[in-house]
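COMPLEX REQUEST
Ligand: pyridoxal-5'-phosphate
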Amino acid sequence: MKKEYLFAPGPTPVPPQALEAMARPILHHRTGKFREIFKEISESLKEVFQTSNQVLIFGSSGTGAMEASIVNVLGPGDQALVINGGKFGERFLDLCKAYGIEIVEVPVKWGTAVNAQAVQQRLAQPGHKIKAVYATLCETSTGVVHDIEALGRVVAETNAILVVDAISGLAADQLRTDAWQVDIAIGASQKALMVPPGLAFASLSPKAWKTVEANPRKVFYFSFQLARKALEASESPFTPPVSLLMALRETLKMIREEGIDKVVARHADLARRTREGVRALGLELYAPDVSSNAVTAVKIPQGIDGSLFVKRLREGYGVTVAGGQGSLKGKIFRIAHLGYCNTFDVLTALSSVEGALNDLGFSCEPGKALQAALQTFETTH
Ligand SMILES: Cc1ncc(COP(=O)(O)O)c(C=O)c1O
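STATUS: Structure written out below.
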């Protein structure tokens, strides 16, 4: 018997009540019963996004909503400022390139967070046509959390809108969408929302809607305007992933019961425990000062083959973590503490790391990471 454990930053484990909901007979989506459920879901999503605005729902992975945030907002020849500090900042660049959008890039050294002043200075330069600033809450590839509140202050002083990819950060890192003046916040189902991949979300501020309404580009499947119109009747424009929504209804109940601030606090606590644990083994964090609550990026110690380490965890312990992406391939590994996760999950992840390191010849005392993870904090989840 081999038990599998999922500690990758998405998809994340799905709780039993959500799995059970997906096994129920399919409801037809143009019925009163489904409309009621759809309405309940869209209202609960507002709490998670911390917004009073509608949260639009799409049947796609998170990138679908990222693409929607480009095509609904920008027409050919428009300019976008893209903050690029990792693989997912790069994705906004790629999307802009695909649609002929002029890019003003603010590059950020991988493993560090953006300086809002750099964005402010760029926006203050005369003669640009920047309509939107694209940022990432948790840059999953590096484990960095960016200061969205500071970016919100800077962008709010201009005519541009702030678009935030909160796909991995939502409900793990704090995101006060309205209070922080985020115009478009993007999420997806397979991270802290604890649902399988296949749902993407976008909330829009009144300022964002003005930009969208003024955009001459025609959009169909990913049209924000079509989605808004359908949502007014508690529906989606096209056949929605009914079973995923049934699962989401359950996980949103769980989040509501715990309370969004407590959900974020739990993630912060699990992140701290994980970090104390890996430090106790003599390992180094990749982004110690700006780490997201969703995922911990750890440098692979000298003399250890990073790919072999990740493989050893999977094959020897049934544990899936993520390796490094792009230029970080083989150099870091990433443990997620995201979604349906508690202290015991963190202990499992840490003890498998101890085991795999020892297997590969990096000596560490069994139990040391676990002790550090347990000792430092009083509350357990
Ligand atoms: C920060 C971030 N943005 C975008 C994505 C892409 O989302 P998807 O794979 O659901 O399209 C991910 C997925 O890992 C992510 O973590």
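REMARKS: The pocket of pyridoxal-5'-phosphate is lined by residues 10, 61-63, 88, 91, 136, 138, 140, 165, 167-168, 188, 197 (CB under 6 Å). The mean pLDDT is 97.
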